[in-house]
Amino acid sequence: MMLEAHVKIVEGKALTAPQKKDLLNRLARIEGQLRGVQKLIALADTPLDCDAVAQQMAAARKALDRSFVQLLTASIVTQTSGAADLPEARERAAHLAAMLDKFA
């Protein structure tokens, strides 16, 4: 994918490089969906065109929601497994649970 040419993926403690690559690919597909929605809006002529726009917007929103869940799932796996001990794993899991509560 062309994304890799523009964004350098670094290994870290939050997410692994493959997890980052997967998320970036998902976001690139969503970005393409949104460009398609913009074109549909620009070309909208009949009431049925608005139906198509709404359908595509809902699909993009759902894809973004799935990406959010994927981010949290990957974070839970990576951050808790990389913890030095059980208390640190619990602390990291609690932080991610709070993030889920705040943003979901």
From TrEMBL:
Q: Which GO terms describe its molecular function?
A: DNA binding; metal ion binding
Alphabetized, the UniProt keywords read: DNA-binding
The keyword DNA-binding is annotated on this UniProt entry: yes
Gene3D superfamilies in the cross-refs: Metal-sensitive repressor, helix protomer (1.20.58.1000)
Q: Which Pfam families match?
A: Trns_repr_metal
Tell me the GO BP annotations in alphabetical order. negative regulation of DNA-templated transcription
InterPro entries under this entry?
Metal_Tscrpt_repr, Metal_Tscrpt_repr_sf
Record-stated family: Belongs to the FrmR/RcnR family.
Protein name as it appears in the record? DNA-binding FrmR family transcriptional regulator
